[in-house]
Amino acid sequence: MSKFIQNNLKPIIKDTTNARIGVITLSTDFTIEQDFRKICHNLPVDIFFNRIPFINPLNHENYLKMADHIPEVSEQILPGQKIDVIAYGCTSGTIAIGEDNVSNQVKKSKPESKVTTPITAAIKAFKKLNLKNIAVLTPYPKDVNETVFDYLSKNQLTVDSFNSFNLNYDSEIAQVSLESLKESIGNIDLEKVDGLFVSCTALKIVDILDQVEKKFNTTVISSNQAIIWDCLKLLDLNTKVQGYGKLFKN
């Protein structure tokens, strides 16, 4: 063809019927996107991510800085389009900012969206599985852990033991090996508790949830597992997901 000639073709335009999940993830998070893809890859949902500015280290001041960015970051998930559920992907950040505040900030730009967070979802999961006396594992530094402990206590949960890797950066948290996770969990007394809560969207725990539950005869709720489970519940998708813990079987 010596000169450009465009042939105009007529496509068939068809809207998808899949529900839409928007995920706000920290700019420093290595893990939550991968976990959503792993767990939801065969489900009738479309998932869209946007990252919110966050600067390590993990502390209350840096968490609070995210709040003002939430409306804009929410709006930029398919601007002008309806998103059925928006998941704010930070457990300890939600505790610092406040669940209601996170939801209100999202609804400034996406008023029709249902909103969930990892800690919101975890509390729902504890109630669903009747877990009242729990052990906790986090990667956070002490100051952050104290806020998590207080939050769980205010929600009528008894924390039997609180265990931490005491890390300050998401890059470090994402590099905690599965072997280290299993070994650390093995050092937690799980015999006298109803289950284990593993907090933080950056920890790569979902791949071994089934293994840990079977090996230690316990129930594990993790941040990413819980928030994904809650997103599906909010969409009335009750399809059972295999391989990611007891929570998805309920």
How are the SSEs placed, and which strands pair?
Elements: E1 19-26, H1 32-40, E2 45-52, H2 60-64, H3 70-75, E3 85-89, H4 91-97, H5 99-107, E4 114-116, H6 118-128, E5 133-138, H7 142-154, E6 158-164, H8 170-174, H9 178-186, E7 195-198, H10 209-216, E8 220-222, H11 223-234
Summary keywords:
4-stranded parallel β-sheet, 2 domains, 250 residues, alpha/beta, Rossmann fold, 18% strand
Protein architecture, described:
This protein is of the alpha/beta class and 250 residues long. The chain starts with 18 loop residues before the first strand and ends in a 16-residue tail after the last helix. Helix 6 crosses helix 11 (223-234). A 4-stranded parallel beta sheet has the order 2-1-3-4, with helices on both faces. The chain has a 4-stranded parallel beta sheet with strand order 6-5-7-8, with helices on both faces. It is globular and about 75 Å long. The protein folds into 2 domains: 19-117 and 227-249, Rossmann fold, CATH 3.40.50.12500; 120-222, Rossmann fold (3-Layer(aba) Sandwich). 38% of the residues lie in helices and 18% in strands.
Structural class computed from helices and strand pairing: alpha/beta
Which series of helices and strands comes N to C?
EHEHHEHHEHEHEHHEHEH
- Total DSSP E strands: 8
Biggest sheet architecture: 4 strands, parallel
Domains (count)? 2
Radius of gyration: 19 Å
Shape by Cα distribution: globular
CATH top level of the largest domain is Alpha Beta
Task: Enter the CATH topology name of the largest domain.
Answer: Rossmann fold
